[in-house]
Write a structure and sequence with these properties.
The complex is a heterodimer. Chain A is mainly beta. In chain A, about 0% of the residues lie in helices and about 55% in strands. Chain A contains no helices and twelve strands. In chain A, strands 2, 5, 6, 10, 11 and 12 form a six-stranded mixed β-sheet that branches. In chain A, strands 3-9-8-7 form a four-stranded antiparallel β-sheet, with no helix packed on it. Chain B contains no helices and eleven strands. The chains are: A mainly beta, B mainly beta.
């Protein structure tokens, strides 16, 4: 079974600074996707970024980028120029070819300090 | 329109009540999902509908009964719930049910069972 581990229950960052959230996963599959979702106090889960495992190039979306290390099974999220609106719970998630189920990590609560 | 709309936002029900949660999307998506999220935990998959047919049931108790009347609408019928069923119920949709698909979530229904 696939597992997703987020080792940082909480993180904080100063506004305009950069922060990196960690995620590791375990799988025996060769074809899969990785995602970062954020859940602000509104409780809506919002997709931040998606990475295809077969792509070596790291995905980027504006201020959000990932460091995908396939051999190490690591998928960290970097948030540059942090803004107050980035404060949220961030979930790393895995979806593979065996059953297409989206498996979430336990989440990292990010606080942005003004 | 990239919205998934869930109603009601809040629901309080007794253990003998029958109620329904509603989810609607108009993005032309053909896969729809129900997730359950307890406080400070990641979402847990309950059901997946693909092309209006139930494709995944994650061993959910029969007191939860999903229904997909058409491609835009997803219901979750609730009957004889237990207090431990109190949680945030999230609906999501995607273009299809494939592993690389981006899920779009609603803001959820916060359910309290007394």
């Amino acid at each position: 079974a696939q597992t997703v581990t987020q080792s940082q229950p909480e993180m904080s960052v100063q506004e305009a600074e950069t922060v990196t959230l960690s995620c590791t996963y375990d799988t025996s599959e060769s074809d899969y996707y990785l995602f970062w979702y954020k859940q602000p106090p509104s409780r809506q889960m919002i997709l931040v970024i998606r990475q295809e495992a077969y792509k070596q190039q790291n995905a980027t979306e504006n201020r959000f980028s990932v460091n995908f290390q396939k051999a190490a099974k690591s998928f960290s999220l970097k948030i540059s120029d942090s803004q107050l609106g980035d404060a949220a719970m961030y979930f790393c998630a895995y979806r593979g070819g065996s059953n297409y189920k989206l498996t979430f990590g336990k989440g990292t609560l990010l606080t942005v300090n003004p | 329109d990239t919205e998934v709309t869930q109603t009601p936002k809040h629901l309080v029900m007794g253990m003998t009540n029958k109620k329904s949660l509603k989810c609607e999307q108009h993005m032309g998506h053909r896969a729809m999902y129900w997730y359950k999220q307890k406080a400070k935990k990641p979402p847990e998959l309950m059901f997946v509908y693909s092309y209006e047919k139930l494709s995944i049931n994650e061993s959910v108790p029969s007191r939860f009964s999903p229904e997909c009347p058409n491609s835009s609408l997803l219901n979750l019928h609730l009957h004889a719930l237990q207090p431990e069923d109190s949680a945030l119920y999230l609906c999501a949709s995607s273009q299809a049910a494939g592993m690389g698909e981006k899920l779009f979530f609603g803001s959820g229904t916060q359910l309290s069972v007394l």
